[in-house]
Amino acid sequence: MPKQKLRRFGEIKELDFVLEYPYSVLEREDFPYKGKWREDFFQTPHPLVLELGCGGGEYTVALAEREPMANFVGVDRKGDRIWRGAKEVQEKRLRNVAFLRTDINIIDRFFEKEEVDALWITFPDPMMKKSRRRLISSYYFEKYRRFLKQEAMIRLKTDSPFLYQYTLDLLEVNSISPRYATNDLYNSPQEIQEAAIPDVRTRYEQQWLERGMSIKFIAFSLPLSDVPFKEPPKEPPRDDYRSLCRGSQKYQEEVAKKIRGEKE
How far is 120 from 204, CA to CA, in rounded Å? Predict the structure, then answer.
């Protein structure tokens, strides 16, 4: 493992607002804050908001600065990513942010029934070949409703046409009406932009906007009944992102080429 990663892992272990609980740790001990995030961890009664797949924590930190009367937990499994956001939290002395390093597949083991007020899923991998691994799917919906409050809002931001259409289809087959849905967020009515907090943008999101790509946004709530969620009968066409890493130089060149072609 590179020395830089080892150093970062060592640094986040010293931060009391970074909680590392992979499978191996949960096999040995229970998570101490399940059902007690407000009382024992944040020590405030403020709403509890999660961001799943938070990466470097840009969005988690920005939301926490914007909304000091809410508590935010960014979740990701990669410590070197979390390190970036954790250092910013440390420098800014924010008291309403935590990072949870774990696999999102076991996210329901960290929160009690109706403990979470809202959920953000920002630019997840669309997982076009693996529906069970999508953070938006019937599989994950079952997990989310184990800890979301009644009427808790789930907000999805994505640059993937595939994931946007799949989400709409998933909601429809489960008789869920989205509160907001747009395939071009920053050219949508002000009401939708405000729901998506448009002045909070990750570096990744800003890069796509500069390349002329539209950002999609959907907000909805899950019914807290015992009726199992269903998958759509068929999937939408896969988009152009399926074979390239979005952060790679090759991918960016392909996107730039596509945009030039559209404009010519």
Answer: 16
